[in-house]
TrEMBL record:
Its EC number is 2.6.1.57. PROSITE patterns: AA_TRANSFER_CLASS_2. The keyword Transferase applies. Its cofactor is pyridoxal 5'-phosphate. The keyword Transferase applies. The gene is pat. This is Aromatic amino acid aminotransferase.
């Protein structure tokens, strides 16, 4: 029987129509990969040792990832059950959305934001409600609050926002939480929290005690440099975390990933010094680009957002041709990770030429 003779399997049409996850473009060995907001530093020797010591590949990992949750609980002074871990914070986002929203329900978020949100909502069978970012590229929280309906089950707030790098301030967030019904799950996606230097930015952790509907999501992928090992964590109320745990694909945090995360927590000081290097590079790049005439929102993640509009694809091609592999979102702009020092210098230099040629 040829494939065309076979009866077609009935799949969910909305799933068949979903685009595949669009990964940051790979870079040639001579180029800089600035397309996935990764950490440019090599893993610490202590982390490599911890990974090498984890050799029981013939055994399943601890499904509850207890050792890692204990370390995180101690760090944040919360109970072990108030910590949930998953194979990256994207896996956790999927779990929380599945736990709270299904067919007929709405999930509300600002747009443009993290590309995975729309797909995760569709997979859950729910409907995305996207509220456009403000003109300054930040979240419009009052408008988001106004768009809450009886069908809204989850609101996602991303601060710093991927890809625009903007933050939500504490005041904005608290004003928002004050009007959100407390039976509506709010996910505060803080994947880039460690890079934040603006004192006005919201930090979800101290707010957890005040809001029974708040969950904070963080990751080891960015500041901690473990994107390849896939570990993220959520902090929040036990009943919500338990519901997310119930949706999880079991055993997805491997022993190797858990050991690397534990070793990274032990080396936090060293890793956070690296973060400071990146934020200094970021701020210097932002100042230089702003002086050149680019209108770039103050970046608070490990990346900058060039609102290049209709020129997005052309500019990304020019950058790529000189070995800077960036992430275009046509026709809005380009997200560029802050990586190696040389890549930032090259970026600033190229952008000076590009801005002169803009219409
Ligand atoms: N949230 C945001 C805002 C992100 O940008 C990313 C990664 N690009 C994630 C979550 C997921 O990160 P990970 O799954 O690697 O933890």
């Amino acid at each position: 029987m040829s494939p065309s003779d076979q009866p077609s399997v009935r799949l969910r049409p909305e799933i068949v129509a979903l685009p595949a996850y669009r990964q940051g473009q790979a870079a040639a060995a001579t180029a800089f990969k600035l397309s996935s907001n990764e950490n440019p530093f090599d893993p610490l020797p202590g982390v490599i040792e911890a990974v090498s010591a984890e050799t029981a590949y013939n055994r399943y990992p601890d499904a509850s990832a207890l050792a890692l949750r204990q370390r995180l609980a101690a760090k944040y002074e919360v109970g072990v059950d108030e910590v949930h871990v998953g194979a990256g914070s994207v896996a956790l986002l999927a779990q929380f959305i599945l736990a709270a929203a299904g067919p007929g329900d709405e999930v509300l978020y600002s747009w443009r934001s993290f590309e995975a949100y729309p797909s995760l909502v569709t997979v859950a069978g729910a409907t995305s409600v996207r509220v456009p970012n403000r003109d300054d590229h930040g979240h419009d929280l009052p408008e988001m609050a106004a768009r809450i309906t009886e069908r809204t089950r989850v609101v996602i707030v991303c601060s710093p926002n991927n890809p625009t790098g903007t933050i939500v301030t504490s005041d904005e967030f608290e004003a928002f939480m004050a009007v959100v019904p407390n039976n509506l799950l709010v996910l505060l996606d803080e994947a880039y929290a460690e890079f934040v230097t603006d004192p006005e930015a919201v930090t979800g952790l101290p707010l957890l005690k005040r809001y029974p509907n708040l969950v904070v999501l963080r990751t080891f992928s960015k500041a901690y440099g473990l994107a390849g090992l896939r570990v993220g964590y959520a902090l929040g109320p036990v009943p919500i975390l338990d519901a997310a745990r119930a949706t999880a694909i079991p055993l997805s945090v491997t022993g190797v990933a858990g050991a690397a995360a534990i070793a990274s927590l032990a080396a936090s000081d060293q890793l956070l010094r690296r973060v400071r290097t990146i934020t200094e590079r970021r701020d210097a790049a932002w100042r230089a680009l702003t002086e050149q005439g680019w209108n770039i929102p103050a970046p608070q993640g490990n990346f900058v957002w060039l609102p290049a509009g209709e020129e997005t694809t052309d500019i990304a091609d020019v950058l790529s041709a000189v070995g800077l592999v960036v992430r275009p979102f046509p026709p809005e702009g380009i997200r560029i990770s802050i990586g190696e020092e040389e890549s930032v210098e090259k970026l600033v230099c190229m952008c000076a030429d590009i801005v002169d040629d803009l219409p």
